[in-house]
Amino acid sequence: MTSGTPTVSAVVPIYLNHPSLYPIVSDFFESMKIYPQVELIVIDDCSLLPHNFLVTFRNEENLGFTRTVNKGLSLFNSDVVLILNDDLKIKEGDLDELVLLNKKGIYYPRDTASGNLDQFGAIWGMTRETFNELGYLDESLPHYGSDREYYERAIKKGIPVIKIDHRCIEHRESSTYRHTNLK
């Protein structure tokens, strides 16, 4: 961090394989305009449908969520990195605590689809220091296992995992789940 404000990147994996996903992903990008200081690293995981969303990188083959997130993590050069699902509706103030991270740890707000309120998944952030200590997500685990393993790895290493209780972000998981590849 060179000044008082950290630089921030957000890794956003997208996978479009059904027309109903266009408006959801479009809403996500529109809502992220509230945070113009956040660099978006958008990885298209070899979507089956053509689209005009601005992407940083397109996978040549479908790698699945975890490997695509890791590819995005390999591209960030900022003080803070956020991992965001493409089916979130971000409102003003939702990311404030994540954008200003300056302490080691993993931070996450609640989301409307979260069944396990003691674990992150759809939206979380960490400092570069935290990422350097924890490394990448475990690619040998299925889609919903890699975030749980990361959470447990952080706790075992004594890295704080902090839920931001006063924030609840709209997560349209139920709208996208049936059309998503869960590799």
Which stretches are low in confidence, meaning pLDDT under 50 for 5 or more residues running?
none
Q: Any idea what the radius of gyration is?
A: 15 Å
CATH architecture assignment: Alpha-Beta Complex
The biggest beta sheet is recorded as: 8 strands, mixed
Hey, roughly how much beta strand do the residues contain?
15-25%
Which CATH class?
A: Alpha Beta
Contiguous helical run count = 6
Query: Mean pLDDT score, rounded?
Result: 88
CATH topology descriptor = Spore Coat Polysaccharide Biosynthesis Protein SpsA, Chain A
* Overall geometric form: globular
* Estimated structural class: alpha/beta
Give the number of DSSP strands.
Answer: 8
Spatial order of strands in the largest sheet = 3-2-1-4-7-6-8-5
Distance between the termini: 35 Å
Q: CATH homologous superfamily - what is it?
A: Spore Coat Polysaccharide Biosynthesis Protein SpsA, Chain A
Helical amount: 25-40%
N-to-C SSE string, H for helix and E for strand: EHEEHEEHEEHHEH
What is the count of structural domains?
1
